[in-house]
Write a structure and sequence with these properties.
- The protein is an all-alpha fold.
- It has one domain.
- The chain has 16 helices and two strands.
- It has a two-stranded parallel sheet with strand order 1-2.
- The longest helix has 34 residues, at 359-392.
């Protein structure tokens, strides 16, 4: 059986083959799992992952069956897979019973490694099976509609003061929002879906009727972020809006004869910023109208959330650095922060601290320089490849890439203050957005060659 490498470069001009039933089934499962994870409390429970392992096995078996049917294994050999594979290799090394590299929390590292393998498989699936304009449109519509629905439900739940998630699950150690156990991580989810929504909303070719629906969806998502009262979430959502605006300005095509004078383009840029300001004003007004004064004050930092403004972060972050310095090359072990923290903690130990509340510092403490290099490489490759797609693509494909990059940028900013990607449904959606931003769609290449026929 041969391997069909679907290269992710701009020099690929071949048409995507007609989707088979097996391919369509894989594509459907690839979308069901992240949605299911978000609905099931953000996919943070072991029982949810028991279901995910079964669905992962189903995807693998269907993928193998599809390869058998077509006579070759379809895989998009994107360079973005390499850093993720590097993290898996680091986890394997940490599980070896060797001095200086063995995880100090092998049980936690083992479960993290299994989940990392599942995420890697799904990311490879997104890159491989989002292979046509029709599928890209379906994925974009799915993310926007699902995100808007989650935002609407979250706001209704907060306004209704429902006890527990779905009125069933109590969360005594955290403040939930929507189906998420952690309200800050729900805000991060809105940053991703809101980024994609805003990207399509600001697209030049987006029809007016669709633009109205997208504007309503974006406003609801922004309001949901404000209602969480998450300072990091509100700040990051602001960066999402700014990213979309700057990309819209910087990625404009060269003026043609029909574009009018440069002053007209300048007026359009100013108009875009006015629209963005109006969007944020509408979001804040809606939140205030619905009674979200306290959440908005906390989110903007106008009201103190507690005695210590950092909510403990100024204590967690230096300890994360101490753990890193103790295990600088390969870290203390994936997901072992709760164990390593106790060795340096000067607090009484009343509360169990499981995360560093900064994903970059925790990456250093968990996996050392090796893991941090993989994460940094992934981010660099993501934006390098994504910006290339933005530059070389047109119309809907361009603005889908802009929106997806904006969503990724938002949660990466949020990760400086929290650990939103360790809510695994967020990790699934992050990788889905990374695929939307970077995957090559065959139609794009035909469009790019059209101008050359006039010379």
């Amino acid at each position: 059986m041969k391997v069909e490498h679907l290269r992710n470069g701009s020099d690929v001009a071949s048409e995507a083959p007609a989707p088979s039933r097996l391919s369509s089934a894989i594509f459907l499962l690839l979308l069901i799992v992240p949605a299911l994870g978000a609905v099931l409390f953000g996919a943070v429970d072991q029982i949810t992952w028991a279901l995910f392992y079964l669905l992962w096995a189903a995807v693998v078996l269907l993928w193998v069956a599809d390869a058998w049917q077509r006579g070759g294994f379809a895989i998009n050999a994107s360079v973005l897979l390499i850093p993720v594979a590097g993290l898996i290799v680091i986890g394997i090394i940490q599980l070896l019973p060797l001095p200086y590299v063995a995880s100090i929390g092998p049980g936690e590292t083992w479960f993290f490694e299994l989940r990392l393998i599942v995420l890697f498989t799904f990311f490879a699936g997104y890159l491989t099976f989002i292979d046509s304009p029709a599928r890209l449109d379906r994925v974009v519509n799915f993310v926007v509609i699902f995100g808007a629905g989650m935002a609407f439900y979250g706001i209704l739940q907060r306004l209704g003061s429902t006890e527990g998630i779905y009125g069933l699950r109590e969360t005594p150690q955290s403040i939930p929002f929507g189906p998420f156990v952690n309200q800050h991580h729900f805000a991060a989810f809105m940053e991703m879906t809101g980024g994609l929504t805003l990207g399509i909303l600001f697209g030049k070719k987006t029809p007016r009727d669709r633009r109205i629906l997208l504007a309503v969806a974006a406003i609801v998502m922004g309001a949901a972020v404000a209602f969480t009262g998450s300072r990091g979430g509100l700040l990051s959502f602001g960066f999402v809006v700014l990213f979309v605006l700057l990309m819209r300005v910087l990625s404009r095509e060269r003026h043609s004869e029909t574009d009018g004078p440069m002053s007209r383009g300048l007026r359009r840029h100013i108009g875009a910023f006015v629209v963005a300001f109006a969007f944020l004003a509408i979001v804040f007004t809606l939140v205030l109208f619905l009674g979200g004064n306290d959440q908005l004050l906390r989110g903007t930092g106008a009201a103190a959330a507690g005695v210590e403004v950092s909510s403990g972060r100024f204590h967690f972050w230096p300890i994360a650095l101490k753990i890193f310095l103790e295990h600088p090359i390969i870290g203390s072990g994936f997901d072992s922060f709760a164990v390593a923290f106790t060795q340096f903690d000067t607090w009484p130990g009343i509360f169990r601290v499981e995360q560093a509340h900064n994903d970059y510092l925790q990456t250093l403490s968990d996996s050392g320089i090796a893991g941090f290099a993989c994460v940094a490489a992934f981010i660099v490759l993501l934006f390098k490849r994504g910006l290339r797609i933005v530059k070389e693509s047109h119309d809907n494909r361009r603005y889908a890439a802009i929106g997806a990059l904006a969503g990724c940028f938002g949660i990466l900013v949020h990760s400086f203050f929290d650990f939103p990607l360790r809510t695994y449904s967020n990790a699934f959606f992050f990788l889905l957005l990374a695929a939307i931003a970077t995957v090559s769609i065959p139609e794009d290449h035909r469009r790019r060659r059209k101008p050359h026929h006039h010379h």
